Amino acid sequence: MVGTDPASRIYVERKARVAERLGFAHRQVDLPPDISQERLLALVAELNRVQKVDGILVQLPLPGDLDGDAVLEAIDPAKDVDCFHPLNTGLLTLGRPRFVPCTAAAIMAILEHWGVGLSGRSATVVGRSPIVGRPVSLLLDRAGATVTVCHSRTPDLEPHVRAADILVLALGRPLAIPGRWVKPGAAVLDVGINRMPDGSLCGDLDYGHAMDRAAYITPVPGGVGPMTIAMLMRNTFLAASARQNVTPG
Question: Per residue in 134-143, pLDDT tens?
Fold first, then answer.
């Protein structure tokens, strides 16, 4: 954890609580916002060498002029439980993932829990970030859905949203998608978490009309977020198992 970003700190604390509840050894390293790139890379290299460490994650975004890509690339891919290293991203693209990015894995787990069939369905992903939009679009495509990826420069978003049997929102803009756009019977997963002026949290979806139209819908907060942390713990368990040559039961 570099710096003191309040939102990042809350998320890190939640991860720590879940790790402790599961009995995972957890070490949080707090670093000043003015840390040098060299010192940060040296710390990652040190953790790569520690045999008792199975998973390393760097809380993003990094402050100042720190090169986040260089830091992520410095993590041992076998310990990259966030699945941000280029090697792990490439394996995911090839359909041979070592790990699956945590939020994308959470979305797929929720759809499976709901019993939503994906083969032959229309899926719209709003947002194309390498953390959420791109990996979840790959997973949905591999599951047999016909996937449309939209983003901030999509000129007419409404028809893409209206056509979606499965709608994933990861735009990062509060209440950007009107509920009346949601297709009746759709499964909606809102990844957005935005803080409003009054301090409350909301997603990318205006839930007003959506609640009456969607067959399934995730709340904000309390929906995709907790499942993302669960998938992080799963990736850590898989990393530990692989490093000990143990096949998870």
Answer: 999 999 999 9
* Amino acid in position 240: A
Overall average pLDDT of the 204-227 stretch:
94
Taking Cα atoms as reference points, which of 192, 195, 214 lies closest to residue 203? 192
**What's the predicted TM-score (pTM) here?**
0.93
Q: How far apart are the first and last CA of the chain?
A: 32
Catalytic residue among 54, 82, 165, 190: 82
Residue pLDDT, tens place only, 11-24: 889 999 999 999 99
Query: Quick check: is 82 catalytic?
Result: yes
* Inter-residue contact 224 to 109 (CB < 8 Å): no
Res. 249: pLDDT tops 70: no
Name, in order, each residue with C-beta under 8 angstroms of 52's C-beta and a sequence gap of 6 or more: 25
Helices (H), 115-179: 133-142, 158-162
Give the whole-angstrom CA distance, residue 81 versus residue 57: 7
CA 44/CA 126 separation, integer angstroms: 33
Identify the active-site residue in 5, 59, 76, 141: 59
**Residue of 15, 80, 190, 204 marked active site:** 15
